[in-house]
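We modelled the chain as a single entity of 180 amino acids. Its sequence is:
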Amino acid sequence: MAKGRKKIFKPDYNAIAYNACSRNGARISDLAQIFGVHIDTIYKWMRAYPAFREAIVRGRDEYDTEKIERRLVDLALGYEYEDTIAEKDSQGRTRLRKISRQMPPNVTAMIFYLKNRSPERWKDRLSGLIGNVDISINLPQELLPVLDEPVSALPPAEIEPLKLPEEVTEDGEETESKDV
């Protein structure tokens, strides 16, 4: 953007920023282009004009909720959509025909959605206290249903001292292992 006169903020920029963010998912760089200013100017306006900042935050949140979250749910559950295919008729002419297709549910989207929507219920991490030691373990998915009791319900473990392997000196003689 060429240097020149500073662009003065106008109150109607709030509505423009909100609409750009909520309808199109506009980023800060997009807003700078819309208003014909440098990105730094957008950040300055956000600090100087709380209503402008709020319009951007609300617009982004609405876009994320209405567009992105909805698409994630659709992907997780599967959906039907219309597609156009080209077919040749008996005289060799190409004809376009609309058909209905089914997008099957996406397991990865389901996992992502559930882990973020209800992390305590859908976590694949086990953590808690064993004795007076705080632990955290990543578990394979197939083990999670097997565990009925929380880790904190397990009795304290007896911890034996770690033994170092026997050492061999340069003469080839073994020394005793030491407790650590």
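As a brief sanity check on the tokenised model: The beta strands are 79-88, 94-103, 125-130, 133-138. The longest helix spans residues 50-77.
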